[in-house]
Amino acid sequence: MVGIIVIIFLAAGIFFMSTGAIGLLRLPDFYTRLHATGKCDTLGEVLIITGLLIYHLFHYPETPLVPVKLLFLIVFIFLANPTATHAIMKAAYNTGVKPWKVGDKRM
Questions:
Q1: R_g over Cα of the chain
Q2: From residue 31, how far is each of 47, 54, 61, 100, 105 by CA, in Å?
C-alpha cells in the first residue's frame, strides 16, 4: 500500500514538472514562461520529495533524521522558489522587458 502511495506522489510530481517544462517551451513571453515554471516546478519538487519522505519513513525507520531533513527541504522550497521567481520578474520588469500582447508576433 505504501508503494502505491509513493508511486502516486512521484507520478504527480513528474506530471507537474513536465507541465512546467512544456509551459516553458510553449508560452509566448518571459513572464508567462517564468510563471508556469515557478508554479509547476515548486509543486512538482514538493510532491517528489514527499513521495521520497513517505518511502523513507516506511522502509528505513532506523534513520529518523533523513525525513526531518526532507521536511526542511520542502519548507525551504516553498519559501525560496516563489521569492526567487518574484525577484527575477521584478528585475526583468525594471530593466524594461515588455509583456506579450495579443497582437504581437513573438509566438
A1: 18
A2: 24, 35, 43, 8, 16
Half-sphere exposure of 106 (CA within 13 A, CB side): 12
Contact 29, 99 (CB under 8 A): yes
pLDDT category of residue 98 using cuts at 50, 70 and 90:
confident
Count of C-beta atoms within a 10 Å radius of residue 63? 9
Give the separation between CA 49 and CA 64, rounded to whole angstroms: 15
Which pTM was predicted?
0.87
CA 76, CA 20: separation in Å to the nearest integer?
20
